[in-house]
Structure formats: structure tokens, C-alpha cells
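Pasting two entries for a bug report.
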Amino acid sequence: MSRTECALVMCALIILAIVVKVLTFDAQGWMRKDLRHGDLYALIEIASGVRPNGLNPDQARRLQDRGMVRGFGNGNYRVTVKGRLALLIRETVRHSVQIEQ
């Protein structure tokens, strides 16, 4: 087998692995892992700017451990890209459940 053919086979295997990973990804499980009731609502309030300091210490620790918020200033927080992705997944899942009903 030539180097080109070997490279194409390797690319095909990598693409197959990515497709399998994407198809078996549990979005809701990822989004809610290590979070408690109310954490996502607090994340929504921070993302919308309603309450940038609206986290209690436990919520702040859990969301920072997951990389969904980043602290700045004196007790204020900003939502990271990962946090916005979690909110997007949450909204998509809620919308698809409403359509099914």
C-alpha cells in the first residue's frame, strides 16, 4: 500500500471515529453532569445580564468547575463559550420536546 492510500485509510478511520462519537453523544447528560436544580437558571440570568452577580458560592463553584462561567471583578461572573453551548443545547432539547407533544 502506498503512502497516499495509507493516509486516506487513516483519514477515513478518524472520520468514522468522529461520526460514532457525535452520534452517541448524550447532550443532556453532558449538560447536567455535576449540576443541581437551579444552576442552569442562574446561568441563564448571568448570560442575559439580568444578574451578573446572581450566583451563590455553591453554584459558582459548580459552574466554574464545569468551565461554564468565569469570575471577574468583585463577585461578578461571565458566561463562557462552554456555558453558552450548554444553554443552546438546553433550548434545543426543550424546543424538540415541545414539538413532539
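Entry 2 (this is the one that rendered wrong in the viewer):
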Amino acid sequence: MFGTPSMRSQLEEMEHAAEESLCNDAAFYEVLQALKWEIDADPQVQSIVTNMKVTGSTVFISFVPHINILVKAADRNFSLARRKKGVPSPDENPLTRALHAAACDVIRKSGCVSQLNALAIEVLDAHQGCRRILRELRRAEYKVVVSVGISSYAQIRPRLEQPAYAPDRNEAEGGGQERSSLPLSNQDAVFLRTMGISVDGNQTRRS
């Protein structure tokens, strides 16, 4: 039975069931949010993010949890093969790699991970199908280790510059005429209001 397609199918079923249940688990989400706050507050992460912003870039840090189930026998282990996620590609710049490494370091040291593991175990124990599989594996004297893996992602995007507005010839010559309408995004509208410029539909005028 050990390492057979049957065991592989059992582990797939448990991992899928746990991930599906945890997607709607408020406690699990709260711990993930706490982990994100720890990453954002880390001095090394903040230092790298500041350096990125100086270069005119926007920084995005995110992570994706996934369930890992390891079956241990006396002399061997078995788990599902998993693609490596969140690993920077060789062509990414040094700051991206440094940010990814800093986020991973926070995750490794965080106490949130043990809380996530405990919640994953609770979900499996509460799931009827998973309980049955766990009983079968333990009856065969296998040890089952459940953990939550975190794949972190760090991405840099160049900050888009807003092009300066250039009035056309008619507007330049007819200073008293009403400005032609311009399509404005919500962000543009908020910015104009802070500058004391009223926004009426798609037209702008100073207050």
C-alpha cells in the first residue's frame, strides 16, 4: 500500500478537501492576515520596498497557502510531488530576489505557521472522508504529518506616469471658452479635487 496509486489518491483527496474547507474558514483567514502584517512590518522587507519605490516602482507582495500531507513509515516517507511555487526566475532583478528571500525568512520564523497547521489538522479531523482515510493509515502504523506550506510572491511593476495635459489650439486662443471634456478615472478625479478643481461629469473647472 505504501506509495501506491491508492495512497496517492487518498492524499490528493485529503489535500483537496482541506484546501476547499479552509477557503471559507474565517480563523484561517485571520491568521493569514496576521502573517501578511508580519511580512509588511519586517524591517528588511520595508528597507527593500523603500529602495524599490525610490526607483519609481510599485511593489506587490502576496502568498498562497497549500496543504502538505506526509506519510511516514519506519524507513521511508511518502508525499505528493508538488511544483515549486513562488521561486524567482533567474532573470528577475536582485531586489525582487532579495524581497522574496526576506518574505520567506519571515514566514519560516513566524508563529502563525503553527497556528495554520493546527487549523488544517482540525479541518481534516472534522471531515468524514478524511477521518476514514486517516484511520486507515494509522491502522497500518503510518504516521501522518499535516502542514501548511506558504508560497510567497514578490512582483515589481513600473509606476505609470500620467501624461501632462496639452490644450489644443482653440482652447489656447479662447481662454474664456469652456474646456473640452476629458475622460477621467476615479483616481484623476480625486487628485483634481484636492487641487481645488471641481469635476463635473467629464469636464473640469477651478472652484
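Dev reply: Rendering is fixed now. As a check, the viewer should reflect this: Confidence is low (pLDDT under 50) at residues 175-183.
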